[in-house]
Amino acid sequence: MSIISKVVERVLDKKHREYVDDAGKAREHMQKRSLEEDEPYKIPKLIYHTKVESKDFFGCQVVTFNDIENTEYIVIYLHGGIYVNEIRRPHILFCDKLAKKINGSVFAPIYPLAPNHTYEETYEIVEKLYDYMLTLDKPIIIMGDSAGGGLSAAFCEYLAVNDSPQPKNLILISPWVDVTMSGDYDGVEFDPMLGIDGLREMGKSWAGELNPKDYKISPLFGEVRKLPKTTLFVGTHEILYPDIVKFHEKLKDNGVDAELIVGKEMNHVYAIYPVMPEAKEAFNHVVEIILDYKK
């Protein structure tokens, strides 16, 4: 663990949010979020490496990076945030950097969130976006972090159930694969960012009337044998670590070409934090995976 990573972890620990640990506080947080959830997302005013725009696709705001006409790859990036919190600056910077590095077009949907919305609306949007991307005849990568990583895996399971084409690659950064938080987390040494009871409550809200153990909500319990080549990143300092290891084992047991990258003593979604050397290594590996299609 690098010195910079230790500093980042201390900062994250000091900013630890109570609503991830407590169901009541999670409900309070969702109530506050509900008042602003349906406001348009404003792209941060930063220096970008690509052309960053807000566009409408199938009634959903989508942040795009690079015009698709002049690029070689398509990435659909589904952001994390416990299915409640909006896309954040690290996501935007990561997508911008990735689009530049691979000469690709990245599409980051500002998908509907709990508690105002459930998974159903988002599935409809992502499916239409994906079907449109298939018509462009370019390699498609589906990628996401945390809740967005869980959604990415679940959506690929959904594609398999419906006999739809899979993307060329599935890349998951600290994916939330069991929103019921039913695993054994006693062995996790430390997590500066996440808890159990609050996450479980927000996961239930996202599921709506559907059983939270349904694969569309918790892909750990779904059929995985038809998934594409899958790469997972996880840190040992995150509560989701045991579930992600279990999901990777399930992929391997079902014949999926799956790789698990474990960041020792790394925190949740460490791969998208640009200042840490471990994150830079993870980013470079993501680029290698995508550009491998040129071979």
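Above is the first protein from milestone M3; the second protein from the same milestone is given next.
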Amino acid sequence: MNTNYPLRHELKTAALAAAARGWRVFPLKPGTITPAVQNWQQKATTDTEKINTAWDHGPYNVGLAPCPSGLLVLDLVPASPGEHPPLCHRSPGIQDGADVLAALTDSKGARFPVETFSVITPGRGLHLYFAHPQGHCPRASVGTDSPLGWHVAIRSAGSFVPLPASITSQGTYEIAHPGPVGAWPDYLARHLPASALSPTCPGARAAHQVQQEALPIG
């Protein structure tokens, strides 16, 4: 028996479960977060035949293209050992991207979006999933920072995130909260400058069209 079969089966199941919800997926190289295909933006798919064919070849991790899937993801990045926030965010309790978002949320009199579908990364960061906003979508940020703050990255058009069940040398992407995908918070949309907005991603559906079920994987 192929010793990779159980892992390959679990990853294929994760890819198919995401595709069943209209989420476009593509393979990442086994054990990494590097795309296994060129032009992954165009090749991300919900086609079950293509997914079965791809994952029958090996234990590929599962990449999600958020924007054409009707989603955007906030990537709350943990601080590296010895890393400190910049002066503009340096205050008691601020240690990572989750703390920065919590402070921004408090300043707007809003509630931290704990009820949306979310994923813990192997580095102990947090991915918060939101329905694609209608009209304009925030541009994907480069690196770990965005207009929302230090270590609060935006993963949308032109970027991707690994889905739960994907595994790296640091560990596995795991579901933190299996609830439905929430709406993109108005206070975050208002906080972004006009320069951070881009035209609606090609192929993206309106927020109300995104299927809201959680992924049945872990």
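Note on the second protein: The radius of gyration is 17 Å.
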